[in-house]
Amino acid sequence: MMKLNKNLKTIAMSLGIGLTLLAGANVYAATQTGTLTYKDLEARYKLDVDWNWFDNDNAVAETKFVNPKSGYKVAVRLEMWKNGKMQGYKYQEDKKWAQVTYSWTGVDVYQSRHSINDVSTNKELVVRSLRDD
């Protein structure tokens, strides 16, 4: 009987340690990158997503000029989708580097939109979209 109790304690402790390790376990991580070009302008874009089992799903989207020029800006929009509907988005624009982050539980899809924009007209001159599900 004493040996059985000792074995049960060992099993329980092993399960507890295993569950603790799994709680923060990353299921899948992916980074998608590319380059936007418009005339002589160049900007790098990125969507970096970490999918987790028992924790928030995290995404970082950014658009960053390689060679910033007066009259232009970069922009990024990061959307969070759940149950087939967009639940929210974040948007950032800047003359050099635009970055947004999202952290939410149970996300189905993170989708980003990256662009180089004309400052005077706010018109998107070149756009790329990324999706991670």
Structure description:
By secondary structure, the chain is of the alpha+beta class. The protein has 1 helix and 8 strands. The protein has one helix at 2-23, and strands at 26-38, 41-52, 57-65, 72-82, 85-94, 97-104, 109-118, 124-132. The strands form 2 sheets. Strands 1-2-3-6 form a 4-stranded antiparallel beta sheet, with no helix packed on it. It has a 4-stranded antiparallel beta sheet with strand order 5-4-7-8, with no helix packed on it. The protein is elongated and about 45 Å long. The N and C termini lie far apart (50 Å).
Question: Can you give me a brief rundown of this structure?
Answer:
The chain is an alpha+beta fold and 133 residues long.
Set out the fold topology:
Layout: H1 2-23, E1 26-38, E2 41-52, E3 57-65, E4 72-82, E5 85-94, E6 97-104, E7 109-118, E8 124-132
Antiparallel strand pairs: 1-2, 2-3, 3-6, 4-5, 4-7, 7-8
Described by strand count, sense and barrel closure, the largest sheet is: 4 strands, antiparallel
> Rough shape?
elongated
Distance between the termini: 50 Å
Report Rg: 21 Å
Proportion of beta-strand residues: over 45%
* Global mean pLDDT: 86
Considering DSSP H and I runs of 4 or more, what fraction of the residues is helical? 10-25%
Order of helices and strands: HEEEEEEEE
Structural category: alpha+beta
- Please list the strands of the largest sheet in the order they lie side by side: 1-2-3-6
Unreliably modeled segments: 12-23
Tell me the number of helical segments per DSSP (H or I, 4 or more residues long): 1
Number of strands: 8
